[in-house]
Amino acid sequence: MATTNDLKNGMVLKLDGGQLWSVVEFQHVKPGKGGAFVRTKLKNVLSGKVVDKTFNAGTKVDTATVDRRGMQFSYKDGSDFVFMDMETYDQLHINPETVGDTANYLLEGQDCTVAIHEENPLFIELPAAVELTIEYTEPGVQGDRSTGGTKPARLETGYEIGVPLFITTGEKIKVDTRSGEYLGRVSS
């Protein structure tokens, strides 16, 4: 148990009959008249749904114990993704629904964080940016460099993103794992 005064970004709360909600952002508000309150933005850990919720200051909230473990993506087994715990070397099979969009940026041997609650994997956290190789993109036409346009490119994971026209097949680029945006070339 904690109070709304103890809230931190990333903290996981157990609300509405045991549903898990992650604190995305919070703000303590002290109006000139009336009691103080805490305005929060919460994300449902399982569905990804984001809601705004207001609590009175000092209200007790039930916190969930979420274990964040450093793991490495090993391989895909059927539809499941297999991760290896970097401390115990135990393997954990995680279904595609839990992995979600993270699969677009996962390569074998990639380090990530797996959030686990009561032995159930909740979600996978990747670094903010990952380096991936362009598997295929149309060749750029001479003179395209100044227009600032983009073209589709297939990454080595099979995911497709928009890249600047001057990027070629085989180049290594940096991709934002939160938005899927091209961040730049990786110099070798």
TrEMBL record:
Which family does the record claim for this protein?
Answer: Belongs to the elongation factor P family.
Print the keywords alphabetically: Cytoplasm, Elongation factor, Protein biosynthesis
Q: Residues in domain Elongation factor P C-terminal? A: 130-185
Any matching Pfam family = EFP_N
Q: Which GO terms describe its biological process?
A: peptide biosynthetic process
Does the keyword field hold Ion transport?
no
- Gene Ontology terms: cellular component: cytosol
Enumerate the SUPFAM superfamilies for this protein.
Answer: Nucleic acid-binding proteins (SSF50249), Translation proteins SH3-like domain (SSF50104)
Key word Cytoplasm present = yes
Name its cellular compartments.
Cytoplasm
Q: Which named protein is this?
A: Elongation factor P
Q: Boundaries of each Translation elongation factor P/YeiP central domain copy?
A: 68-122
Report the GO molecular function annotations: translation elongation factor activity
HAMAP family found in the cross-reference section: EF_P
Biological function: Involved in peptide bond synthesis. Stimulates efficient translation and peptide-bond synthesis on native or reconstituted 70S ribosomes in vitro. Probably functions indirectly by altering the affinity of the ribosome for aminoacyl-tRNA, thus increasing their reactivity as acceptors for peptidyl transferase.
Which pathway or pathways does this protein act in?
A: Protein biosynthesis; polypeptide chain elongation
Name the SMART domains on file: EFP (SM01185), Elong-fact-P_C (SM00841)
CDD domains attached here?
A: S1_EF-P_repeat_1 (cd04470), S1_EF-P_repeat_2 (cd05794)
